[in-house]
Write a structure and sequence with these properties.
This protein has about 200 residues and is α/β, with parallel strands linked by helices. The chain has one domain (about 5-195): Aminopeptidase. It contains six helices and six strands; from the N terminus they run E-H-E-H-H-H-E-E-H-E-E-H. It has helices at about 20-30, 50-55, 70-75, 80-90, 125-135, 175-195, and strands spanning about 5-10, 40-45, 100-105, 115-120, 140, 160-165. Strands 2-1-3-6-4-5 form a six-stranded mixed β-sheet. Helix 1 (about 20-30) crosses helix 6 and helix 5 (about 125-135) crosses helix 6. It is globular. About 45% of the residues are buried. The mean pLDDT is about 95.
Length: about 200
């Protein structure tokens, strides 16, 4: 592993009705020893509490489209914009993040299986993806949009890490098998960050 990791963030509930990440984040918050390591600090966040309470994707605006640098800087009003600024203050700023690695947990109605979307083309992310594929051959790596300072997604707060997207699962539903498989991927990621 080429980089020293000091702080990892696990985020669930960026979308309030994607319950795989919500339930895993709640599990990790209740049992921090599961994701804690002596070599780095682990932060677990429930990103959008009101949308989680309402079992809706968002309240005013998709939180995962509120992290563009211009949006963070301009003070636009709205529930999710306020959340984005708070999360960015805790994990960012983008040009000098306080967190080294972000795992943003999502689920989808699409039949994506277990998919990893790296935050950037940084070598760490590709080593991480390759490591996970050795543990879980069914993992798919989707290298689409690279998250830079202009990207609106939460994962853009750090160049290291990924979105973990699992499906197909209906919105507002927990699939126990997909949740267990997602947890294994997160634990594999925690192990990789700790230098396995």
């Amino acid at each position: 592993m080429p980089k020293q990791i000091h702080r990892v963030a696990i985020v669930g509930g960026t979308h309030g009705n994607e319950l795989t990440g919500v339930y895993l984040a709640k599990k990790f918050l209740a049992n921090p020893e599961l994701v804690g390591r002596s070599s780095f600090e682990t932060t677990v966040l429930l990103a959008n509490p009101e949308a989680i309470r309402l079992n809706r994707r968002y309240v005013d605006r998709d939180l995962n489209r509120c992290f563009g640098q211009a949006d963070l800087d301009n003070g636009v009003a709205g529930y999710e914009y306020g959340l984005a600024r708070g999360i960015a203050a805790e994990l960012g700023p983008k040009d000098s993040p306080r967190v080294d690695v972000i795992f943003d947990l999502h689920s989808t109605t699409s039949n994506m299986g277990l998919s990893i979307m790296p935050s950037s083309y940084d070598g760490f992310n590709f080593q991480f993806a390759a490591y996970l594929m050795t543990l879980f051959p069914e993992v798919r790596i989707c290298c689409g949009m690279q998250c830079n300072q202009d990207a609106p997604m939460l994962r853009s707060l750090s160049p290291l890490g990924c979105t973990i997207e699992v499906g197909a699962v209906a919105q507002g539903i927990v699939d126990a098998d997909l949740m267990a498989r997602t947890e294994r991927i997160v634990m594999g990621g925690i192990g990789f960050c700790g230098g396995v």
